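Supplementary Note 3. Input sequence used for the single-chain structure prediction.
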Amino acid sequence: MNSPSTRMWVGLFVLVVFVAGLGAGVAVRPLIWMRAGPPAGFGRPGLAGRPGGPAPARMTERLLDRIAADIELTTEQDQQLREVFETRRQRLREINDEVRVRFETEQEQMNSDIAAILTPDQMEIFENEIVRMRQDRRGRGGRPGRLRRGPGLPQ
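The predicted structure, written as discrete structure tokens, is reproduced below.
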């Protein structure tokens, strides 16, 4: 394995195997997600929403455990801080749900408005373009299922 051409071929082989594995993983991920859905916690905003990131309750727990000694919290202060974090986390979840419902309502209204403007033939072309755009987005590494479907658009 001292010859430069042998090293080049071995290096090229390793590169091809790596790229093939990466390509297979990217190609298979949407198929797996269609059957099993995305990993738990995927798509949630912030650090906690990143795949492999800690759940919000665990993050709070870790933060308070880490700083409790540094800032010399009393037991009462520690409990009060935990209650503040938990209350805020619940409220933010409620806000997120409200925003999602409002967004879906607006999306459905827009879809209805579009369907009222276009002829059935135009609507079919428009729907096909939406489907194509979703597929293109998934091919670029976008997350499947992020575009909401509504009345008048393909399911």
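Residues 60 and 66 are 10 Å apart (CA to CA). DSSP finds four helices and no strands in the chain.
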